[in-house]
Amino acid sequence: MEDFLTKTDPGKDDPARCFAAGLLYYRHPRDSDLPRSITKSWRNIVGSIYTTTVTQANVSEKFEVVSDRVSKWEAAFRSLYFRWRYEFVDRFYIMLGNQAVLFSRRANGDLRATMTRSNPGQRAALDEFGIMYSAPLISKPDIDKVNEVDRSLLLFSSTGDIHGLFNYLLSAGPKFSSVSDVPVLLAEHAFEGATLARLSISLLQEIQDSQNSFHHVIEIEGAILPHNLQRIVTALQLRNKQFEGVFVNDDRLMEVNAFAESSTHGATKKETMDRPFEFAAKGINSIEEETARAQPGTPTGKSSTLGRR
Hints:
Low-confidence stretches: 264-309
Number of helices: 12
Radius of gyration: 21 Å
Oligomer: single chain
């Protein structure tokens, strides 16, 4: 566990330890365990937190529970953001209901933030606050024909604009994240209020093919972050020289994947390594390039910046 909690490479020569580390990540909150009486009125209660002057007379039990949860989320988000800024964390995710925000770092150290599925109201708010962004899936010749999906992917490049996005999400995130809870924070390394979580193995079986050869099948479910994918693939490469894998994209990050693919198309290896999203859906075949540990038997299929199963 000590290797995992530091930035060393856990079990790089031990497939069992490497696989075990590949199942771990940090998240906040631990889970959505709020009572239904609160989740069904989450938006109204959260709205009152930001608009109501709190007095002893108007504080209800529901209000206290939600206010405490939002306060802890804000502290966790601040901790994770500044750990990222000061290079203790390479990337982290905020899952906002049906959309997501990725804070990442390029190979040259430059910071990037990407928001998927932004809506006109959010873009208007960012414009009002003077937070600059680009829409990388939109090309100028086709700007009049662009669809809302392409328009909704936002890229924040300057330090000031990224910090502006942080402030915006800090105040607005709990209000538009979902109908029932605070946004979910996901990262490789620990931060304030984080819980160490584990991907679940939902299927583990041995099958026999028509030629009487035996194969092992494993199914992993959960938020598969880039470090999870890298370690799981490394563990399998250490244990078996040939294997296959299929990874299902998380729909909330499809636009990030499309941007990464367009950014790396036709690039040299050096240019590819310097892209802002080194692991963003370039396919499992790129894992060898990223880890600089080429091994035979790299599985086919496509990965996601954040994947499921």
